[in-house]
Fold this sequence. Notes:
The chain has eight helices and seven strands; from the N terminus they run E-H-E-H-E-H-E-H-E-H-E-H-H-H-E.
Amino acid sequence: MELNLAGKTALIAASSQGLGFAIAKQLVKEGANVVISGREEAKLKEKVSELEALGTGKAAFQTADITKPEDIKRLVSYTAETFRTIDMLVNNAGGPPAGAFEELNDDAWIDSFELNLLSYVRMIREALPYLKQQGGKILNIASSSIKEPIPGLILSNTFRTGIIGLSKTLASELAPFGIIINTIAPGRIATDRVKHLDQVNADKLGVDIETVEAQMKTAIPLKRYGTPEEFANVATFLLSDANSYMTGSAFLVDGGMVKSI
Ligand SMILES: NC(=O)c1ccc[n+]([C@@H]2O[C@H](COP(=O)([O-])OP(=O)(O)OC[C@H]3O[C@@H](n4cnc5c(N)ncnc54)[C@H](OP(=O)(O)O)[C@@H]3O)[C@@H](O)[C@H]2O)c1
């Protein structure tokens, strides 16, 4: 199978750690050039050194808060100026706060809309002129909540499904330009975000985090959390030339956790 990623350029939003960074690592290993981003310069500098040490594709970073349109414009221009083109755009964001409906005010809803849905719209809009030049790939990171709402995460349950509507519509609108767009939906992949959510649940139930993790794992047919590398393997395939006929689709990486057909 030919991935043909060597020499191609990927811009990955919100990628200083966790799932976004795991994708950056896999792409660099395959010889792609990658721009990672996040809000903390020191963290990004350290992570770029880690990518450079892999010794294959090139890596660069740009600080950007993806809730700010001017930061998104700067991030996209920086990528195009640094590597002359953009072949792949990976949309990602921090997770929204946990909370039930009656615990969340308008500010929480607006913030999550801007972070988890509008930032994807803005990233695509800015990157589109470059992606259109020779075709390319867009990959949106969402959540298993696109298939099955997660209790206590109403903001995720609401805005991640918006990504699916956006992606499915753009699959038709962008196909004439040779642009393929898909969504990848993690179930429980072991990152800081999942640790944070497990701690929130543990605090709510008055138990320790290990108890919550053990309960979560029993509900997953493969009986464990996924690793960021396992998630990145699927993302890398979807971004590569090997994926030439799947667009507008959503793919769960969840160890079988979601029970819907
Ligand atoms: N891990 C899972 O199994 C899982 C499951 C379902 C959904 N998800 C979702 O998938 C996404 C990534 O998950 P993860 O586990 O990789 O999370 P993570 O470990 O918390 O990483 C989040 C990344 O987003 C960056 N970020 C957060 N807010 C940002 C902002 N406003 N502007 C720019 N960058 C920002 C963070 O960097 P800085 O803080 O330095 O900016 C960090 O690099 C999240 O939305 C999460 O909710 C994950």
